[in-house]
Amino acid sequence: MRAPRFGVRLFALAAVLAIVATACANSDSDGGGDASEGPCTPPDTPVITFSAYSTPREVYGKIISAFQTMWKDEHDGQQVIFQESYGGSTTQAQNIVDGFEADVVALSLAPDVDYIADAGLITHDWTTAPDEGMVSTSVVVLDVRPGNPKGFADFDDIAATGVGVLTPDPASSGGARWNIVSMYGAAMHGYAGVAEGDEAGAQALLAGVFKNVIALDKSARDSIKNFESGNGDVAITYENEVGVAQDAGLPDEAVYPPSSILIENPAAVVDVNVDKHCVRDVAEAFIEYLHTDTAKEYYRTVGFLRPTDLTLAKAGDEEMGFPPIEDLWTVDDFGGWDALAEKLFGDTGIFTQAFAEAQG
Amino acid sequence: MASAAQTVRRRPKLRAPTVTRFRHWSLRGAAITYLVAMIVVPVAAIAAEGFGQGLDTFRAAMASPGAWAAIRLTLVASALAAIINAVFGTMLAYILVRYRFRGRGLLSAIVDLPFAIPTLVTGVMLVAIYGPNTPIGRAFGSAGIQLMYSQLAVLLALCVVTLPFVVRTVQPVLLELDTAEEEAAQVLGASPWKTFRAVVMPAIRPAIAAGALLAFARALGEFGSIVFVSGNLTNKTMTAPYLIFQLTNQFKPEEAAAVATLLFAISFLLVLLTSRLVRTERKEAKA
């Protein structure tokens, strides 16, 4: 009878799986909820759950360990533990609204933070923090092939017939909206071959560019990856994305349109969660730390990001190879995100119409 | 086979074998080309990219934050999901085959749902039902168990996604199994459990093992649902496929390829093991 041999083999397999299973059960048990209702006693070892968009992962890796060292020195050797989560900015915001208990968020654009605030989880006015709640900035650039063979200089060049353009999908990538707002604003400011204040001209520019779009990737990073694999003549992206790609040894080259929006990345404490975990003091100290010179230096050198101050950002940074920008402005020039959301992305919005035109 | 040969022989002598051979070769060629183009070439390309520089790329990938923890979590959670589905999948298959009851067809259709639903939707669904803001999530939360955004969430998602495998491998074997033996056992006074263990189990064991191994292999690569349920905490709930995604996002395609190669090497070994298990058992059954 040969069956037992099979049985033995099966048993061995089951045993291996079971051992592995026990290992999992053990590591599962340390993930229990430490939240308690009622009066809040700060934990001996505070744990900060940090949720961020994926691009500045390496920057935050450095800033967090610098903060931990500083905190330890100032608090009798107390260790702060960080649980870090990185993902798409809007996905992260959605997860937090759905109950992912992040104490601190660092996202790619203000509306994602507002989304968490609207759900009642951020109860303070986060824009009253230093630098109006922003920790880093960047500008919109055109990522071109080495040597800029097609000689692009501004957005109207990439609206010309026969150009292959990559830009993320504004429906799924919050960050993609930076590109669209930047093109719209540049046109309204009299750049990109459009007369100042000519809204119809701005719409025509957007339609022209989106007619040339060969792929609407789901995120800014996917767009660049797509460009790297040889698709298209130009990717509309941000200076820091090109910086990261160049740092990774890729042959990307940035062309700076003369007029750009100042891309501002916010960070905020999630009130409901820090109170639940009783870590408000640490979380607030961390947010403050993000505005220190030490942190700013990491944003600059590791993240290829510009400073939050508009004048400084506009002036550029020779050492980092960031050129000055002729016309740099913020969303406030057009009434802020809420007004822009309506004006550009509403049902009869300028982009909505331009996009329909480009598709038609 | 024999009858086919006879029909061929009745046709004109020269032409028939040529046509058959041509058909035979074109069929085989098309099938193999398809397999090579769709699977072998991409897999080889990934392996070459990941291990073209030897082990250095893999080591670099493992140096990124949370890499080992991610791979360990993926292996462990996949194994657990396979075991859980081996138990419940066998139960489901047994019920579907041996019992006649109202709604059986519906139950059978529901079993296949995880194959049909996009896994992204599975993730969204799990958060909607078991998330911390839902009644169920809150009830578990007050008992100190966090269902979503935890390692448990990863396990849950993997269980859902791989549920059909064991059911669908065990079901056909059970269907073919002669119920006379089971009846005989029961007539001779064996309890239903004894009957199941002594008569049914030996016959379906390889199918359970095969289904569980397939489920494990499939779980290793699950990404869509994990994005929404895990919270992707480095060193805690980040899984290996998420690690791969993150590495490609950091413009490290070689490192991503190295981790990917490790994952499908494990999958491939398991699939090989599965077919060996099944073959050995068939031989034993014949002997």
Provide a compact summary of the structure.
The complex is a heterodimer of chains A (360) and B (287). By secondary structure, chain A is an alpha/beta fold. In chain A, 45% of the residues lie in helices and 15% in strands.
Large-scale geometry of chain B: globular
Question: Overall pLDDT of chain B, averaged?
Answer: 88
Number of domains of chain B: 2
CATH architecture assignment of the largest domain in chain B: Orthogonal Bundle
Structural class of chain B: mainly alpha
Most extensive chain-chain interface: A-B, 42 and 48 residues
Quantity of strands of chain B, as a count: 0
Largest sheet, strands/sense/barrel of chain A: 10 strands, mixed
In whole angstroms, how far apart are the ends of chain A? 73 Å
The succession of helices and strands of chain B, N to C, reads HHHHHHHHHHHHH
Q: What's the assembly state of these chains? A: heterodimer
Q: Based on DSSP secondary structure assignment, what is the total number of beta strands of chain A?
A: 10
Portion of residues within helices of chain B = over 70%
Shape verdict of chain A: globular
Rounded to the nearest angstrom, the radius of gyration of chain A is 24 Å
Run of helices and strands of chain A: HEHEHEHEHEHHEHEHEEHHHHEHH
Spatial separation of the terminal alpha carbons of chain B? 24 Å
